Here is the input.
Amino acid sequence: SLSSQTLTGGFSRELHLAPGMERFPTVTAALGAAFWGCAAFVTLAIAATLHQWDSHASQLLAAVGAAEMLGVDSSEAVWVLVVPYVRAVCVAVGFYGVYRALLTPTPVRSPNIHAASSAKFRALRHKHFPPGFANGWHAVCNASDLEHGRVHSIDALGTHLVAFRAGNGSVGVLDAFCPHLGAHLGMGGTVEGDSLRCSFHGWEFATSGACTAIPYATTKGVPPRAKTTAYPAREILGRVYVWFDAEGRPPQWELSAHLDLEEDVAAGRWYFGAQRTVQFEMHSCEMAMNSADPVHFQTLHGPFPLPVLQHVISGVHTVKATYGTGIVRSQRVERPWLTEFVEKMNGLWFFGIKWLPVPFAASVASMVSTTVIFEGPTIMHFMLATPLGKLRLEQTQLSLEPFKQHVESRWYAEAGVPRIVLKIVALIAARALEQDREVWENKIYRGKPMLIAGDGPFPAFIRWYSQFYSENSAEHARKSLEW
Here is the structure.
């Protein structure tokens, strides 16, 4: 006797339909009719049951008495009389469960408003961070990239470069675009003797940037003005480094923290054992800034950096940073572009509870120490002393964009260290690096941070890192496509 409109409206108000159901009034009316019809049926059934309970109870008692007189199990008689009621209850409960599953609304989560890749957030980061490309030495490629006459293209540091190995063995890094008509020297360019030949018109360039040949030139010799920009390059431990400076100045200092390792590898006392590359959507200062932040070693790096174990085992670290000093050939030296960072783990505990230590962890931790030398803005030398021998990690980052870093890690170990140990340590270090990713890729920079007692030496770090910027650093960054 109820109209569809009345039934639909009342059902929607009382039962709070699941999202989207209000768009189907016919279905809603049908569900409402079914629900109220079944509710009426169950109500009438209960009333009828209560009305007839006296007679049913009498029948039950009579059946039980008769069964006992005949020596028959009375439970069967009871079961025959009770089953219809049990069945009715099960049907009612089942219907109610189906009704709740179909019509109870499910919670809807609000969208995550923050998007690290959004243009708005990128603009905010550009506003707060220092310029995207720091002055100094940067690792741009590996020596293996230049084998067999290959020309390696590099899009980084706000410019385009090409690297090649001349016939005499020297490495050259040039501006990627030919000064003649702008052809990209890495696209079809070939190494001819000691020069890089442009595929467009055959101009050839030495590692110094000077043009050495123009096949069709009608004048004798090559005009002196025919040259391109060449970047100072160094080849160290299988990596190629270039000097970048926003003012165009020559190298202000030379790389030296690697010298002892380079000699040990050449003599066979150390070996190269592992390599890993990864990219982070962050600014180049973030890794070096870790040196000024001892507290985050207890929070982000407290959990042991391996799957499963990170939920069970945690440790406590002590760290110390000294800006303006470093280690070269096992000697501590004072040089403004260096920073010495010492980290030590004091032990491991289950669930961070001090009275549940991991067996032997304190003894092993006392024999392990890590010293990190930051050499300029993007080069790090990790020196690990362990009971099984010493290990070294040479880690570099290349700014492909102001907030995109290509990080490469190369591991070395003393000849007596088993390779499996080196692989395990490299895996743990890689996992530890990933612990920083979420913070690095979603933070802004505070030039004047709000510090309290117990924070690290952030002002000292900011002063140290600022030396790698000059007057034109911001202008060069703004000219890059991604700025």
Summary: The two ends are 71 Å apart (CA to CA). The CA atoms of residues 118 and 124 lie 10 Å apart. Confidence is low (pLDDT under 50) at residues 1-24. The first strand starts at residue 136 and ends at 142.
